[in-house]
Structures are given as structure tokens and as C-alpha cells.
Write a structure and sequence with these properties.
Length: about 90
Amino acid sequence: MGQTKKDGQKLIIVRSTAEAQNKVEAAVEQYFSKAAHLRVRNTTREQGDLIYEVSQRAIDKAIDQTKSSIVEKLIKIEGVISVDQVEQTDNISR
């Protein structure tokens, strides 16, 4: 068994139309400079979900540089339905 640790990880969950997913991915990559890790991509013909794992440190750094939150940036993209930011409190590691 691995050990459980809490390290300030956040999940950014984006629901959008299928057509908007590429724009969302580009925006997340630009905003976090590759510090966000895509963990889930779920796509149907009509819509899709993208779930990113990001450290609190990366979020704070990006906010300092851009003066806006990732939620504000993503919700402005045409086709984005919702954006949720969730604290990931349990992380199993080896």
C-alpha cells in the first residue's frame, strides 16, 4: 500500500462542447505553462469533460502572472458550459 499525503493539489474540471475542447486545452497549457496535467478526457458527440490536476503553487504563480483566475479565463471561451475547481485532499502515492 502507498501512503496518503496532502499536498495542495487541485482538480480543474471543465465541461464544454466537443468543439471547444481544443480551445480549452490550449488555454490551460498557456495559462499554466505546462504545470497542469490532463488526467481525464471524456468526449461524446455533443460535449466533453476535461479534468486537470494542478498544484496550488502553480495556481498561485499563474494568478500572480496573469492577474486573473483560470476559471475566469475558461468560462469566457465560447462552448464552455462549466468550470469547477476542487481541492483534492487525498492522494495515494508510493
